[in-house]
Amino acid sequence: MNIYGIRAIYRFEMARTFRTLWESIAAPVLTTSLYFIVFGKAIGSRMGDIDSISYGAFIIPGLIMLNLLNESISNASFGIYMPKWSGTIYELLSAPVSWVEVLIGYVGAAATKSVLLGLLILGTARIFVPYEIVHPFWMIAFLLLTAVTFSLFGFIIGLWADSFQKLQVIPMLVVTPLTFLGGAFYSINMLPPLWQKITLFNPVVYLISGFRWSFYGVADVHVAVSLGMTFGFLIICLAFVGWVFKTGYKIRS
Amino acid sequence: MIADKPTPIISVLGVNKIYADGFQALKKINLEIKRGEIFALLGPNGAGKTTLINIICGIVKATSGTIIADGHDTVRDYRTVRAIIGLVPQELHTDSFESVWATIKFSRGLFGKAPNSAYLEKVLRDLSLWDKRDQKIMTLSGGMKRRVLIAKALAHEPTILFLDEPSAGVDVELRHDMWRMVRKLRAQGTTIILTTHYIEEAEDMADRIGIINKGELIIVEDKEVLMQKLGKKQLTLTLRQAMMNIPAELSAWPLVLSNDGLVLVYSFNAQEEESGIAALLSKLGEHDIEFKDLRTSESSLEDIFVSLVHQPMG
Ligand SMILES: Nc1ncnc2c1ncn2[C@@H]1O[C@H](COP(=O)(O)OP(=O)(O)O)[C@@H](O)[C@H]1O
Ligand SMILES: [Mg+2]
Fold this sequence. Notes:
- The structure holds 2 protein chains of 2 kinds.
- Chain A is mainly alpha-helical.
- Chain A has 10 helices and no strands.
- The radius of gyration of chain A is 19 Å and the shape is globular.
- The model of chain A has no long low-confidence stretch (mean pLDDT 87).
- Chain B is of the alpha/beta class.
- In chain B, β7, α6 and β8 (191-195) form a beta-alpha-beta unit.
- Chain B is elongated, with a radius of gyration of 25 Å.
- The mean pLDDT of chain B is 87.
- The A-B interface holds A 2, 4-5, 7-9, 11-12, 15-16, 19, 86-88, 90-98, 248, 252-253 and B 19-20, 54, 57-61, 78-83, 85, 87, 89, 91, 93-98, 102, 105-115, 152.
- The site of adenosine-5'-diphosphate has 12 residues of chain B, from α1.
- Adenosine-5'-diphosphate binds next to α1 of chain B.
């Protein structure tokens, strides 16, 4: 195991964040604050409680998930796309590192960043709404699992993309709609019966539901199903990455 | 068993490369690099130099064939092999936003070496980069970026160094610095493989030379042997009086007369013991052909190269 190599990649990636620390933090904190002001205070005050949770508190887990998914994907995809784009990937390809090590470095850094951001949003939410976390262990577990899974997913997008447009197309056209329709702002019980069924094909539903369960002990789908689905997606991503590395697809000519 | 033949540090065995578009960039390359030598790979643009270097370094996959470096298969034992190889790529690929110091620290770590600030400082000082260590790479000139790439390649103390066209677009000062450093590295036992556009440089620097054209390795020789074997010498005589044609008595020598009849050129192989000059000169004397000037010249590596490849370097 090339520990120094993993550490070098990890640090390089973290340094990239810290160089743009202000943007990395300010933008998501500002947007979530706006969400809390608009949905939590202004509209939320006119909304009834959902599952006896105030609306402001209800949207916290969903908002964190929304940011977690976006940040994980964009950090990891950008991280591996950049060296491909600038040509510095030559160094990675000629270094004594295995692809597992490369993956640990990039995905580890991307996941670290999004977990830190998730916690930051959690702290920001506190300013606007009181909440408590019923299952803190599971909350952290979901946070980590989701961050790692979607960083992995982002890594795959970064490997696949050969233009900045492609880098953004999947997050924009697939992930954002799925997160918005994943029950971040509503309980799926509030949907018409047919849509309640259709929405179960949206993987994000399981993430948000499970995550919300760790906060308030209530969920749209059983928490075990949520956990299973999240693991399932993790394994799909791992298998895909394994195949990419084995074949050298889009990496080595 | 051949006892005293040292094992080569790199053996390229029957390497072929066909790119995805079907273009064959390398055709059955066999090449041995000796431990501790400076080896220059010469060839026109598109000959396959970069492809060969990239295959050895692990950036490009060979279609077939094997490469052994320091006793290890470069694919199967890639960890062992890559840890001792440094590469300065042809293109100036750098992380614009990183500082010089951060980027060479990164390189050292990536190649599996424990941090060693003292060593990295020395590398930067040798390359006159120490003053620039805190600067972002994008603020540096092209020549300085080239130095940064060299520093990165040396950051993990490699014993084999590849320099892919290191002097392309580089000013005279850096070129001198670089060659001084290359000589120093060789003195410390590092094996150096370089490709260059500047043939004089190969002539100056290399112990051995390989010439590659259209994916085929045409010749690999000690530099001296190559120059001797393929080099031509010329004797140029400037005559006092114009000559209409070459007298029949001189037909034993392959002579060429200039159009104005004033210059007589005699070409002969450099490695011939008996040049025939003495006999020619006395023959000229017998025929009262007087000359006011006499000059000999040797063909350069460039002449040899052009005659082998039939096209100028570019
Ligand atoms: N990725 C690639 N796909 C297809 N052809 C390539 C690729 N890279 C290089 N080539 C071709 O292979 C040949 C050798 O290229 P290269 O090794 O870069 O030559 P050199 O370094 O000697 O100039 C060239 O004709 C080039 O166009
Ligand atoms: Mg080249």
